[in-house]
Amino acid sequence: MNAATRVYLDHAATTPVAPEVAEAMARVLREAHGNPSSAYAEGRAARVLVDQAREEVAAALGASGSEIVFTSGGTEADNLALRGTFAARKGDADGIVTTAVEHHAVLDTAQDLAERLHARLVVLPVDRQGRVSVSQVTAALDLRTVLVSVMHGNNEVGTLQPIAEIGAACRARGVTFHSDAVQTVGAVPFDVATIPVDLVSLNAHKFYGPKGVGALYVRRGTRLVTLQTGGGQERGRRTGTENVAGIVGLGVAMRVAAERRASEAERQTRLRDRLFEGIVARVPDALLTGHPTQRLPNNASFCFPGTQGEALVVALDLEGFAVSSGSACTSGNTEPSHVILALGIEREVAQGSLRLTVGRDTTEADVEALLEALPPIVARLRSISAEPALR
Amino acid sequence: MNEYTAAAIDHFTSPRNVGAVDPPDGKGSDANPSCGDRTTITIRVDDGRVAEARFRTFGCTAAIASASALTELATGRSVEDAAALAPFDVLHALGGLPSRKEPCALMAVGALRAALLDVRVRTGEGGAFGPGGPLPPHPTEPQGPREPAQTKSAPGTGMR
Ligand SMILES: Cc1ncc(COP(=O)(O)O)c(C=O)c1O
Ligand code: FES
């Protein structure tokens, strides 16, 4: 199978680097070797590049440059948000509230804080569509709550959380609110002027930027303790010589994403809905996972009872399709995904999860090809497993 | 190793012996406790030999390929020889599995041994402690190294 015939439908795992981004990064690597902290011309040139990128990221979020802290990606941004906020707590404050469908970068960090630093952790359940309600969050808050962390768009099932309302509830009680928006920044509008959120995680490789670079938005006045100590870069909040090329790539990717957001969201929503409609029509007993409308424009996710996710992924790979089951970030793990289980889907059905995520490069022909290839694969795997006890 | 071999892919895409022997002389199931996936093997025994072995698997690529390869290995063997087939033989027939997927081969062997035990129970020969003597241990128990059994069919050529 040659690369030209591959169909990539796993944009939630990562996206290809946009040509504008690759070009800008290559130019930095070739031409701007200075350390942004150096006072001479080469250093100042690198500093200008980093600060331009900072302004671009800030502009796309409606923030100001000083509120952007560059990190090595989404995982680090989540860790800095949770650990940094917890470390900055005052008095007897010790409560963290999050949801059962967060990415491991949040969930495992919160659990680690509970185990090692005795944070009182509340992990809120979600409904069948993957949503947590504002009233659930409000009910979980008490006088000792330090932080609420609720993701914006779910990486597996695409469900969007009501973060503006949750943020307002947190603000009313003076509780810091973090949102992992790794899947949504670049895909749907995200404006910190209208969403009362204090900390926002994002990473470049989900919106056609490079891997290994991201940012944490830190609203002015939010208390945060650094995780690293060193030379004091990023206003001491994330010290270490900046990944200049990566940061420039992030800035360009952010600008391009903002320019294309409206038209791409509309186009990708059409492709996504075509996947829903086509799969429901062609695959018996297909179960849509996530919220039918409050979801990422590019995410179509399912469970096919009687099939197992890894087998689906391998079978589709053999036919030229790159897709994933459960979360790509924990591949190699054969346990059913914690997200699908949190929706209340039974274990065996959860094993047959499939996530299709379209992107800028996805065409209608790609979607039609998938709709041709998938039904016989599901039928074949079901014929292998079909035993009354298993169905 | 982190990719499936051509032989494993061939067993996955064109599995041999899918289904159930009806009525079976023996039927056995096993599950992979880490994921809950399952394999059931049914067999027909003729003259002390496994005349037919069929499987159903709810599981991953490795689980399906293993069950397919094992039913091939078992067919035509004496009941004793079939009961001695080990995970090692399955891995050998498949040209290996990605290392994190090796445990997935165990349940095929567990299901076959359970089916062979069921034959003895049904024929009144007794179960694990009957006159037929003890059965080999469950494949998850440690076993010494041994020579691979001969693969009867050529490994597949199904990589596409
Ligand atoms: C929602 C979410 N949060 C965090 C991450 C972690 O990002 P990274 O692996 O780039 O650090 C991911 C990506 O896999 C994600 O989808
Ligand atoms: S992952 Fe369940 S048997 Fe392989």
What does this structure look like?
- The complex is a heterodimer of chains A (391) and B (160).
- Chain A folds into 2 domains: 3-15 and 261-384, Aspartate Aminotransferase, domain 1 (Alpha-Beta Complex); 19-256, Type I PLP-dependent aspartate aminotransferase-like (Major domain) (Aspartate Aminotransferase, domain 2, 3-Layer(aba) Sandwich).
- In chain A, α7 (244-282) crosses α11 (364-385).
- With 391 residues, chain A is an alpha/beta fold.
- Chain A has 11 helices and 12 strands.
- Chain A has helices at 19-31, 41-61, 74-87, 104-117, 134-140, 163-172, 244-282, 309-318, 338-342, 347-350, 364-385, and strands at 7-8, 68-71, 95-99, 120-124, 145-149, 176-180, 199-203, 214-218, 287-288, 299-303, 321-322, 353-357.
- Residues 327-333 of chain A have low confidence and may be disordered.
- Chain B is an alpha+beta fold.
- Chain B has a single domain, classed as Sufe protein. Chain: A (Alpha-Beta Complex), CATH 3.90.1010.
- Chain B has helices spanning 6-13, 61-74, 79-84, 87-94, 106-122; strands spanning 26-31, 38-46, 49-58.
- The longest helix of chain B has 17 residues, at 106-122.
- Chain B contains 5 helices and 3 strands.
- The two termini of chain B are 19 Å apart.
- The complex binds pyridoxal-5'-phosphate and FE2/S2 (inorganic) cluster.
